[in-house]
TrEMBL record:
Keywords annotated in UniProt: Membrane, Transmembrane, Transmembrane helix
NCBIfam families the record matches: perm_prefix_1
Organism: Gordonia amarae NBRC 15530
Keyword Transit peptide among record annotations: no
Superkingdom to which the source organism belongs: Bacteria
Transmembrane segments: 95-116, 122-139, 146-165, 177-195, 216-239, 251-269, 281-302, 314-335, 347-369, 381-405, 417-439
The protein, known as: DUF4153 domain-containing protein
Amino acid sequence: MSEEHIQQWRGYVQRRSVLAGDDIAELEEHLRAQVDDLKAVGLADDEAFLVAVKRMGRIDDLSREFAREHSDRLWKQLVIGADDTGESGSARRDLWVAIALAIGAALTLRTGLAWLDEDVSARLASVLVLPWLAGFFGWKRGMARSSIAVVVIGFVTFGVLLAVYPFDGDPGDTMVLASIHAPVFLWLLMGVAYVGGDWRSGRRRMDFVRFTGEWVVYYFLLAAGGGLLIGLTVGTFHAVGTDAEGVVTEWIMPFGAAGATVIAAWLVESKQNVIENIAPVLARVFSPLTILLLVALLIAFAADPDLIDVDRELLILMTVILVLVLALWLYAVSARPPQAPPGLGDWLQVALVVTAIVVDLVVLIAMAGRIAELGLTANRSAALCLNVVLLVNLAVSAWLGLAFVRGHRPVAALERWQTAYLPVYAAWAAVVVITWGPLFSWV
């Protein structure tokens, strides 16, 4: 379908171009007009799209790169010319900007660790690092001033609140909860920069979902490589009688953790054709394994009903597993070709979500029992509310998923639901950071 191709083209141009949103919209309008004209003279949808892209003039710089990234597509031959080889100047520029911002993130985090109290620097870590990543995408997307203001105000507000709130304890529950939920909200706020301020677009939100999954893959690859290098460094210096652990802990690890945040994003932007092949494989591999894990948990609970009533750590781990399930589901939907018919992988995803719903209900019952027996605390209330938020998403996802595999709804309905639910997570994270401390006396 030409509409699907146009959406792919627009999404790619938005991710790769420094053009403003209005300029991209104008280019898309021109492309659509070309497609309509060609269809009017008898060309099929796909043929009209191919020829229209070929006629885009100097926009071919982007269109040809788009075709190169999708080298397995038939229409590559119609778009890529013989002289379209080599690294572009914009790619080199992006790399140097990413390196500069990565250094800025590393220096900011290291300065915060050196100047601020340990507890304060811990809860401000995301505020110190993620603005640099938002800056990378704000520069790359050419954001409007109003969107820039929203992002800046959000980061500054959360930074001030996390710095001045009088959290008690060593550390207390409310401080830990704020430290955990602040990165969730700030990451989604950074997503406003990623989409160039076009946060109302469900398609652009789905692009951000894809980016998030790809970024996680690249960040862990960088972390694994960095961990190996650090281990070899410490071992080598230890072998010659020098203790390098202090330097590694105080300098190399903070620098690497912060800098890799921006570098991983640059890798996703520049190597999308590689990760798009890896991501669907990861979703297919881990979904059935996660189903087996959830079924094993349910069997264990059935064999020993008292187990879940008393094990606080188990309840926490199960909540983490439910988050993982939603991440797998969300990424599987985002990576799925929209034109493909329902298959075995889609049925497995539905089975995964349905199993997760059963587990979530068990967790909610257990949490309600603990609250009735031991009373309401910051941790218990946050865990209970989070599981309710997850349950709503899981329930609607299962309903839409069943409708899709049975042929009653398109996969686009799944995407719209998942992208529409993202602000709910942001709102929940903001509520915990802003209100949980005052509600529970900062303990």
